[in-house]
Amino acid sequence: MEELAALIDALVYTRGRNEKLRLIAEYLRRTPDPDRGWALAALTGGLDFPAVKSGTIRSMVMERIDPVLWTLSRDFVGDTAETASLLWPAPPTAPDPPGVTEAVDALAAMTRSSVQAELPALLDRLDPSGRYALLKLATGAMRVGVSARLAKTAFAQAFGVSLEDVEEYWHSISPPYLELFAWAAEEAPPPDTANMPTFRPFMLAHPFDDAVVDLADYVAEWKWDGIRVQMVHAGGETRVYSRSGDDISATFPELVPALGVPAVLDGELLVRGNHQGGEAGGAASFNALQQRLGRKTVSKPMLRDYPAFVRLYDILTLDGEDLRALPWSERRARLEALVGRLPASHFDLSAVVEAADFARLAEIRAGARDDAIEGLMLKRRDSPYLAGRRAGLWYKWKRDPLLVDCVLMYAQRGSGKRSSFYSDYTFGCWDGDPDHGAELLPVGKAYSGFTDEELRKIDHHVRSHTVNRFGPVRETDRSLVFEIAFDSVHPSKRHKSGLAMRFPRIHRIRWDKPAHEADRIAALKALIRD
Amino acid sequence: MRAPFSWIRPEPWGIHVVPADAWIDPGRPVGRALVTHGHADHARGGHGQTVATPETLAIMKLRYATDSGATPVAYGETIALPGGVRATYVPAGHVLGSAQILLEHAGERVVVTGDYKRRADPTCPPFQVTPCDVFVTEATFGLPLFTHPPIGDEMAKLLGRLAAEPDRCVLVGAYALGKAQRVIAELRAAGHRAPIYLHGAMEKMCRLYEAFGVDLGELRLVSDATGDAMRGHIVICPPSALGDRWSRRLPDPVPAMASGWMRVRQRARQRNVELPLVISDHADWNELTGTIEEVNPTETWITHGREEALLRWCQLHQRRARALALVGYEDEDD
Q1: Residue of B247, B265, B272 with shortest CB distance to A15
Q2: pLDDT band per the 50, 70, 90 thresholds, residue A527
Q3: Nearest to residue A64, comparing CAs of B258, B38, B144, B167?
Q4: Is A374 a residue whose pLDDT tops 60?
Q5: Domain B8-145+282-323 carries which CATH code?
Q6: Which of A136, A152, A223, A379 is an active site residue?
Q7: Residue A335 or A390, more confident
Q8: Measured between CA atoms, how close is B144 to chain A, in angstroms?
Q9: What pLDDT is recorded for position B333?
Q10: What is the 3-state secondary structure (H, E, C) of A287-345?
Q11: Residues on chain A touching B143 (C-beta within 8 angstroms)
Q12: How many residue pairs bridge chain A and chain B with CB atoms within 8 Å of each other?
């Protein structure tokens, strides 16, 4: 437990991604099975101990410490597990920390009636860092700034295996992942995934930078503005996976019974509407889909008002046969043949965009009336389905971004290497005529799109044009204009301006442009296509 | 008969010793000030007369460029104030020159601690327990979660990190008065002989400590050094300089901070600290409560900090106590 506690503490205080990867990889290499598997499960959110909840910890501590002192302390710290780890009245005996596996076994064996006696016995054996690690392990929320994907990346780095393979095997095994460690660390055969509803890594696209391709070699498809998903049916089970490989079946329960054919399908998850791909049977804007994202349970009105479906791009396996090595054109034929067997209520096919030649295709892309479509995909007709981004096979040819001139209003310090720079910017547009008393309303935030040299110049500008300070934030005078590029803009109740931009980034810094010539809210509102 | 202790009155901007018309650590200029120690929230300039230890007066002179009205009192010395009040300055163990003030009047004894700690500190004499009727205590770390680890552990953490990353420097944010010099002196005591680099704002205070006989070893200024020269070395700066433009000249610094607040993880994260060092010049919870038991006063008055929790502790232990609503004392960086 001490080693895991030290790892968790180190992760809490480390900002850099590479440094976090190094710390986790080192731990996984030097720690034996099954301890390291339990640690990996903790970092990827794969542990659940139903008997231990935040409330359990609270009542356990309040039996030992005055409730008023507990509440004052909890309010100060802001985290129940950390407060408990600091306040726990340790016995005078020297710590005798349990191993990770011993602790996990003990936590798993606890029931609601036994937890009040058994958890204290474990805590008594640990120092404050150990108690913190144990309570975080027990309640599941690590708060160490490590996503499941980052932890898997660290695993791949630790043993020199590919992240795609790790993701492919991940959903077929459970903690403490003994087969996965045996395969990665000791070259044992990989876990068997044949009849399991496991995730296959996505094939991804490179940005297309103004080259020309021959349409004899490449096919074009619309790039729909939803979320990329993988639908898997195997061994009688159906799962929906997000692009990062997270199981999101519970968020979209209506899709689960819709796929009864043993297959792995790649597509865009959308909700019904009339923006993307036609008036009837089309899809709504991304903004509508956002209502459905991130929910653990879904209400009936949600299912009725925002019904989800999948617009299919590709097929990876069918009836137990792996199709990924086949050229795109053959997979497409299989997919077209399959779509007829799937319910039209929940599946349709992403159409191929026909064009006589590349010049005509460019015209189609430029003239796409449907603002919610993100752009075009270009796929080599003979491309196999390969994990990750491969040069020359798939391209995304995004629509040109929308542009608007905004005025810098607030700047905040960055973190890590940027911690001495004001690198996060909030900018606004005028709510009327700036020469007649109009005010700026914030419309978005950006922290990318500039070079290091430009960052230094903006930082200098912020420091010499500060009119107010709020902790790490500075308010600047209204003097610097940014040309902001963004993908789309939507109505939003959360912002005073009533607008929310998607993917805003700094396109150019208009040192030359007077602030009163920046755009007005009305101009931005005119770009809404919801 | 007068009500007990009516001659001493807590007001929002300081404690008023009425018969002597003197104020303890007043937050605005007064005719006669009794100053416990040199931190800016306790020692402000512009008083007609300032009664303090010679060390504290020297610190105030450095800060405010004047010592008019300075009245030095050595530790253990008693001075007579108007109105039949006697004041004795007793070591508080907080920083160089820090004192508790014992006030005696009409047969009653009141001790005002100012800020204090109970741990050994190579830069100042230790806190002395002084029996009294009213004990006016600080409560900066007045929550039971604050228990400061032994300073040796924190020094080992600092030196261990320094050795592990020879191509970087460790940048320690520390209060310019007290904490910085204590960290340096503790590093020396732990056997660290290498030069220590200083932010310019620390230099004069370190020289003043040396003038009072505190050995800080070889100190160099960051402004005189190249980035490469500082690799593998410790650099000390005020907490505010940790993420400042100033730090860009340093070789890939590991941001560290020496503060009692570092006990709480999210506090350290908020300040982008990678190496939290739990080092405080204040008493921790067990020392605050232990000191009250040791002094065993009739009444405990609790000032700046987390008064509520310490007040609760006094109630739970059947001790008469009250929280004073003094303003302007906050120690975010200690």
Answers
A1: B272
A2: confident
A3: B144
A4: yes
A5: 3.60.15.10
A6: A223
A7: A335
A8: 7
A9: 66
A10: HHHHCCCCCCCCCHHHHHHCCEEEEEEEEEEECCEECCCCCHHHHHHHHHHHHCCCCCC
A11: 69, 72-73, 76
A12: 67
Q: What is the DSSP letter of A113?
A: T
Hey, are the CB atoms on B309 and A87 less than 8 Å from each other? no
* Residues in chain A within 8 Å Cβ distance of B263: 86
Residue ranges of domains in chain B: 8-145+282-323, 151-277
In angstroms, the CA A147 to CA A246 distance is 11
Superfamily of domain A203-398: DNA ligase/mRNA capping enzyme (3.30.470.30)
* Choices 3.40.190.10, 3.90.950.10, 3.90.550.10, 3.40.50.12650: CATH for B151-277: 3.40.50.12650
Q: Is A20 a catalytic residue?
A: no
Secondary structure of residue A61 in the 3-state scheme: helix
pTM, rounded to two decimals: 0.79
Q: What is the pLDDT of residues B266-306, one digit of tens each?
A: 888 878 899 999 999 999 999 999 999 999 999 999 988 78
Question: Complex ipTM, two decimals?
Answer: 0.93
Residue owning tokens 């970087």:
B168
Confidence of residue A202 (pLDDT cuts 50, 70, 90): very high
Domain extent listing, chain A: 203-398, 402-525
Taking contacts as CB-CB distances below 8 angstroms, the residues of chain B near A81 are none
**Taking chain B (334 residues) in consecutive chunks of 10 residues, what is each chunk's mean pLDDT?**
83 92 95 96 92 97 88 97 97 98 97 97 98 96 96 96 95 97 98 97 97 97 96 96 88 95 88 93 97 97 89 95 74 62
Partner residue facing B144 (CB), from A87, A413, A416: A87
CA angle, B98 as apex, B97 and B100 as ends, to 5°? 135
How far is the alpha carbon of B315 from chain A, nearest alpha carbon, in Å?
11
Q: How far is residue B31 from each of residues A180, B36, B46, B105, measured CA to CA in Å?
A: 77, 16, 9, 20
Q: In what order do the strands lie in the sheet with B320-323?
A: B78-81, B85-91, B99-105, B108-112, B134-139, B299-305, B320-323
Interface-testing mutation among B265, B286, B312, with chain A (most A C-beta atoms within 10 A) = B265
- pLDDT confidence tier of residue A291, bands split at 50, 70 and 90: confident
**pLDDT class for A167, splitting at 50, 70, 90?**
confident
Domain A402-525 carries which CATH code? 2.40.50.140
Chain B residues touching residue A77 (CB < 8 angstroms) = 145, 264, 266
**Rounded to the nearest 5°, which phi and psi values hold at A197?**
-80, 65
In three-state secondary structure terms, A114 is coil
